[in-house]
Design goal:
The complex is a heterodimer.
Chain A (H helix, E strand, L loop, with lengths): L1 H10 L14 E4 L2 E4 L11 E4 H5 L6 H5 L5 E5 L7 E5 L7 E5 L2 E2 L18 E8 L16 E7 L10 E10 L3 E11 L4 E12 L4 E7 L5 E8 L5 E14 L2 E15 L14 E16 L4 E18 L7 E21 L2 E16 L8 E15 L2 E17 L3 E5 L3 E10 L6 E13 L3 H5 L11 E17 L7 E23 L7 E24 L8 E16 L11 E2 L6 E11 L2 E10 L2 E2 L9 E2 L2 E14 L10 E10 L7 E3 L2 E2 L4 E9 L1
Parallel strand pairs in A: 6-9
Antiparallel strand pairs in A: 1-2, 3-8, 4-5, 6-7, 8-9, 10-11, 10-39, 11-12, 12-15, 13-14, 15-16, 16-17, 17-18, 18-19, 19-20, 20-21, 21-22, 22-23, 22-24, 24-25, 25-26, 26-27, 27-28, 28-29, 29-30, 29-31, 31-32, 32-35, 33-34, 35-36, 36-39, 37-38
Chain B lengths: L1 H10 L11 E4 L8 E8 L9 E6 L4 E4 L2 H4 L11 E7 L2 E6 L4 E6 L5 E6 L3 E7 L2 E6 L4 E3 L4 E10 L5 E9 L1 E7 L2 E6 L11 E6 L5 E5 L4 E6 L4 E6 L9 E6 L4 E6 L5 E5 L2 E10 L4 E10 L5 E3 L13 E6 L6 E5 L6 E7 L5 E9 L1 E8 L5
Antiparallel strand pairs in B: 1-4, 2-3, 2-30, 3-4, 5-6, 6-7, 7-8, 9-10, 10-12, 11-12, 12-13, 14-15, 15-16, 16-17, 18-19, 19-20, 20-21, 22-23, 23-24, 24-25, 26-27, 27-28, 28-29
The chains are: A mainly beta, B mainly beta.
């Protein structure tokens, strides 16, 4: 990694990508993605998509891209505006920590992040860690989830002789999709640079779908087509970032603003296909981090964030219950992380975070919860030749205050959860790795779980997960002794795991013959799974005069047996596969690149599932699979030779998604789009 | 990898989406009386479009799940979303499908689709003299500030299935009954938390004159007994005010009694009013289950548990019905609302006779008689 950085120093007039030294395994140089081997003190490797691989995926949002990771299941209600949440290794979407440029995206209200909101426009890489990242210098929050997703936005990189970058892009596609964006980066001094970008997303979301039922003899019983309604979305996002470097450290600060107005499409049921419900979101935050090497062996990082999120939900349909609710959430986050290198082979980490959350609403009987969370993480990591290890313990202290008629305090019991990560490289010359981890985590009940009017249950305990994982990884780079000298890189990884989710927070009926629910700690789920990732890349030099041809193929496969052991008195659900988790799922990507031309193919398969842990025919969900293709060409416009300032690139791409027009649902009665296309043009100046 | 992908492609492909066929189970409990069977309407969780119809044939002792689709394969999206009430009137079977905004009208013997009555957010049914009466939450907005919509009763002709008249009642009306020439409607106000509705609307079917009887918050079930009394249940407010049962004398239209008992569902058979209830307590953070019989003549609680058999394990008692002749008690268990429920048959001795798996949220039962009853 150090060598890579020094190469970068040479090649570029530098505004170094922040945290490259300890966070990244990839740095994007224009078109080329360099994936470095993980830094020595990272015990586990993430799944990562970055650079061109990410941009060429037929994906609009981070959620779409995550479908290409193993062990991940997406809940997608369809369309650009439909809610999209992810679930890592079947532990539930509440157990996914989402970090945006190093700081967690909080949602104290319901604990999940709608990843459909994060478009890939400005994203440089997304990395998924099972368990947590095992760096020496990281905030306590980074230890706090069962699975962790890091979304990293683009960092300014300037070519020699240039002190600004401008990109203007437009995407347009089926179902009224339009997505203009602009990016401006400016080098303010040798050590400080500025980045600004904005995008606007619009879609009518009016896509056709077909529902068809056959008789047992194979003849069609009925066949009906319709257009998805109320799936429109209007979203605006703007970000401003400042990045700075000091002799002994670096800092960055970022402002983020997102606002959207979208329809909430409904389940397609008999006689009712339309809805008029709407949701308005406004998310704004300011966050920053300052990393500093205090002494030769002591490094620290201070991070802080303030977030202000507003959500309004409206059901204007007066044949149903009229609802117009507004929720305002605020979060303050402060972290101090320290790394002390006792010896070259032994590090200590001590981090303390404090989080303050509030939630207010215009709902009747609302209790205005306030939460103070203190997190303390202590970790030690050890790396010696063929062995790397990290052991950590996270202390979680939560106090809530609610005010209904009078103010009351609700203390969660302090809890301490351990994690151990090991990596063993038996042959130092070969890239074989045997890895294992154990991690226990508690996720605190959310404000909705505890205090939502009529549904919340103040007596809830935290939900607990335990993960056991063993993996084998191999990678190799070599050059064939053929005439051209073809270069081949291969990579493969297999994980086997066992997870338990205890005290799972589940909505259960409250009785009284109405849809009255109550949150209870009753669920128990066991997950046994296997994840397989494999990739091959070839570089064919073709001839010495021509550009080389790159071919990259990768695939992953997931097997999961996720069983519901909640209710022994209910034999039909006891031991059944939990809702919407397929036994088999896989994806494949192929990318062919020559000079400015690129061709991408992607495939996703999700096997048969049931929409309930009663695995009976009435709950059966069909497998689905989509094939997407994209063709791209990068025009390099060079009016005057050797003059950087007058040259620019035009990046163009045409995508066709779901080419066989499969009609499928991910969630029961929420049809997904069939064949659709998208055209992308970007001016890169 | 390639092999794996190919095998997935060719072996694990989508099968054509085929109707789920009826599933027949032999129970063996046969009785040969005027009652030849009963229909059970499963609500199906909201948004799932999984309302379904089961039938128990008492003459041969078989229980058949999901009979509607196979008889009516041409009906798009089957029975619909959230079954809320079921009744037989004359030769026809009427099923109220709440979230699909319609009443499905079928032949009572075959369940063959005859037609629909379209009423938004429709709730419960009653019949009188060739007309059906249907409550709906979806009247016009009457309070602009809160967008509160008044409820109404739609009157439809049972031969043409056309709506012939409507009449406004209270907020969010639920069950209704005709006594003499008066229509009694229980208003819940369930959309107006915490300002529930607390009245019964009484409509004179001759001249549409209306009046209200003030009872208590959040009324739900409303049944007439053979003594000219109306029994109405309140769901309570889930906080300080518990679920309760009230008695109204239709001669004076006054509340004459209340019984300290929670009610989820009830059924009147002769002098016995059978109750099952699940009530959540904010004190114990648990649900309390009650099975009781109230004597409608004396207003006394006869028993607080008519199930004696330890084998009977019911998570969420949801619906109740009593066989008019054998007096067998049928209690449904809605389990966790999203997985299949169970129907239990309990004898008058409190012992279980049998149980059977149902659809999701088994809720509403109506008996089928050998001779048509008007």
């Amino acid at each position: 990694m150090k060598r890579l950085i020094s190469i970068l120093f040479l090649a570029l007039s530098v505004c170094i990508p922040l945290f490259a030294a300890n966070e990244a395994d990839s740095v994007v140089l224009g078109e080329v993605t360099i994936v470095a081997r993980p830094a020595t003190h990272e015990v586990i490797t993430p799944q990562t998509l970055s650079g061109n691989d990410l941009q060429r995926l037929s994906a609009h949002s981070v959620a779409d891209a995550m479908r290409y990771f193993s062990g991940v299941q997406i809940k997608d209600y369809g369309g650009v505006g439909g809610i999209k949440t992810v679930d890592i290794r079947s532990m539930g979407s509440h157990h996914v920590g989402v970090f945006y440029d190093g700081i967690e995206v909080g949602n104290a209200q319901n604990g999940t992040v709608d990843l459909g909101k994060f478009s890939l426009e400005n994203i440089e890489s997304i990395s998924l860690y099972n368990g947590h990242k095992t760096e020496a210098l990281q905030p306590a929050k980074d230890f706090g989830s069962s699975g962790t997703l890091y979304i990293r936005t683009r960092r300014p990189v300037f070519q020699q002789g240039k002190n600004y970058n401008v990109t203007v892009g437009m995407k347009a596609g089926s179902f009224g999709f339009a997505n203009p964006s602009v990016l401006y980066e400016q080098k303010l001094s040798e050590t400080v640079c500025l980045s600004m970008n904005a995008e606007y997303t619009f879609a009518t979301g009016r896509y056709p779908f077909t529902i068809k039922k056959n008789l047992p003899d194979g003849s069609v019983a009925w066949d009906t087509t319709g257009y998805r309604q109320n799936g429109d979305v209007n979203a605006f996002r703007a970000e401003v970032g400042l990045f700075g470097y000091l002799p002994q450290g670096k800092w960055h600060i970022k402002g983020y603003y997102y606002q959207s107005n979208k329809g909430i499409p409904r389940a397609i049921i008999r006689n009712v296909w339309t809805s008029s419900q709407r949701q308005w979101d406004r998310n704004a935050f300011v966050q920053g981090a300052f990393q500093y090497r205090v002494g030769r062996r002591w490094e620290m990082q201070i991070s802080a964030k303030y977030a202000n999120d507003k959500m309004r939900y409206l059901n204007p349909d007066t044949t149903l219950m009229y609802i117009d609710n507004t929720f305002l959430q605020q979060e303050v986050y402060i972290s101090w992380a320290n790394q002390v290198e006792l010896f070259d082979w032994w590090n200590l980490t001590l981090s303390g975070d404090y989080i303050y959350n509030t939630l207010s609403s215009n709902m009747a009987n609302f209790v205005y919860p306030i939460r103070h969370t203190a997190l303390v993480a202590a970790a030690t990591s050890f790396h010696y030749k063929w062995i790397q290890a990290q052991a950590s313990v996270l202390g979680n202290f939560v106090q809530d205050r609610i005010s209904n008629h009078q103010s009351t305090t609700n203390n969660q019991k302090p809890c301490f959860t351990p994690a151990v990560f090991l990596s063993y490289q038996p042959l130092l010359k070969e890239q074989w790795f045997i890895r294992a981890f154990y991690k226990q985590i508690f996720r605190m009940p959310t404000f909705n779980d505890l205090y939502y009017t009529d549904v919340g249950n103040i007596a809830l305990k935290p939900e607990e997960t335990k993960q056991y994982d063993v993996s084998l990884e191999y990678s190799k780079q070599f050059t064939l002794h053929d005439a051209q000298g073809t270069k081949i890189g291969l990579h493969a990884k297999v994980d086997g795991y066992f997870n338990q989710v205890k005290n799972k927070i589940v909505a259960i009926p409250k009785g009284n013959s109405q849809y009255r629910w109550m949150m209870m700690n009753i669920g128990y789920v066991e997950i046994r799974g296997v994840d397989v990732n494999a990739g091959l890349d070839f570089t064919f030099p073709l001839s010495t005069t021509s550009f080389p041809l790159h071919l990259k193929v990768s695939g992953n496969y997931t097997y999961q047996k996720a069983q519901d052991f909640t209710d022994p008195n209910n034999p039909i659900t006891y031991g059944g596969q939990i809702a919407y988790i397929p036994w088999h799922s896989c994806s494949a990507l192929a990318n062919l690149k020559w000079n400015g031309l690129s061709f991408n193919y992607s495939f996703i398969y999700v096997g048969e599932r049931y929409h309930n842990s009663a695995n009976i025919l009435a709950n059966y969900e069909q497998p689905w699979y989509t094939h997407d293709v994209a063709l791209g060409y990068l025009f390099k416009i060079r009016p005057a030779k050797n003059k950087v300032n007058t040259s620019f690139d035009i990046d163009t791409s045409l995508e066709i998604n779901n080419i066989f027009n499969q009609q499928y649902d991910i969630i029961l009665n929420y049809p997904m789009p069939g064949i659709n296309g998208k055209l992308i043009v970007k001016f890169i100046i | 990898m390639v092999n794996l992908l190919l095998s997935l492609l060719f072996n694990a492909c989508r099968k054509p989406d085929i109707f789920i066929q009826p599933e027949k189970e032999s129970i063996g409990d046969t009785t040969h009386t005027e009652v030849i069977g009963f229909y059970l309407l499963n609500e199906g969780n909201m948004g799932s479009n999984k309302a379904s119809l089961d039938y128990y044939d008492l003459s041969i002792g078989t229980y058949t799940r999901n009979i509607y689709q196979a008889v009516n394969p041409e009906v798009k999206q089957s029975l619909g979303d959230v079954g809320n009430d079921i009744k037989i009137y004359g030769s026809r079977l009427y099923a109220v499908i709440n979230c699909s905004n319609l009443v499905e009208v079928m032949d009572a013997a075959t369940t063959k689709h005859i037609g629909t009555i379209q009423v938004p957010n429709c709730r419960y049914l009653a019949f009188k003299d060739g007309y059906g009466y249907l409550t709906s939450y979806a009247g016009p907005v009457v309070v602009d500030a809160t967008k509160a919509q008044i409820g109404y009763v739609a009157k439809f002709d049972t031969t043409t299935l056309q709506i012939v008249d409507t009449c406004h009642v209270g907020f969010q009306p639920d069950e209704l009954e005709v006594v003499g020439n008066q229509l009694y409607v229980a208003n819940s106000g369930g959309y107006m938390v915490p300002n529930y509705e607390h009245t019964i609307s009484v409509i004179d079917l001759d001249n549409k004159s209306r009046k209200t009887i003030d009872v208590v918050n959040n009324l739900h079930r409303l049944r007439a007994d053979r003594y000219g009394q109306i029994w109405v249940s309140s769901r309570g407010d889930y906080y300080g005010q518990p679920s309760r049962l009230y008695c109204i004398d239709t001669k004076t239209d006054k509340v004459i009694d209340s019984v300290m008992i929670a009610v989820s569902d009830m059924w009147i058979d002769g002098d016995s009013l059978y109750i099952c209830a699940t009530e959540f307590s904010y004190i114990t953070y648990d649900t309390e289950v009650t099975y009781a019989i109230v004597n409608v003549k004396t207003h006394e609680i006869v028993t607080r548990n008519f199930i004696q058999d330890p084998i009977v394990k019911i998570d969420v008692p949801y619906g109740i019905a009593v066989h008019p002749i054998t007096k067998d008690i049928y209690v449904t268990d809605a389990k966790n609302y999203v997985s299949p429920g169970v129907l239990w048959c309990i004898g008058q001795d409190g012992m279980a006779k049998w149980s059977v798996r149902t659809g999701d949220i088994p809720a509403h039962i109506c008996f089928r008689f050998k001779t048509e009853k008007i």
